[in-house]
Amino acid sequence: MLNHEINIRVRYGETDQMKYVYYGNYAQYFEMGRVEWLRNLGLSYKKMEEFGVMLPVINMNINYLKPAKYDDLLTLKTTLTKLPGFKIDFAYELYNEADELLTKATTTLVFIDIKRNRPTKAPEYILEKINPYF
What we know:
Elements: E1 2-9, H1 26-40, H2 45-50, E2 53-54, E3 57-64, E4 73-80, E5 87-95, E6 101-110, E7 112-113, E8 118-119, H3 124-130
């Protein structure tokens, strides 16, 4: 497994009337985790798209254990759970400053060839970066 951590400060606009992070904002946090996970490997969504591949989310599962609140400093751990094929799977754990697990989630994304608008295998340049960890 290959993981990466980032910190996120909860902004006021991301909260609901109770000052809890609005449930829909967690998807954005997970996207931030994936983008930085890729960047940590020397890859980027922008470069993948320039090379003709995009990665839409096809499945997301979230378990809300405790609320994240306004001004919390969160730690998001993003983990690649297995070697990608046509799909790539990530797991997420979101912690507060007290190191309490707030949220667990998974996403599945599919590699799409932009020109053909069809699923395609994970590009070799991505697999070369990931293979040493499996």
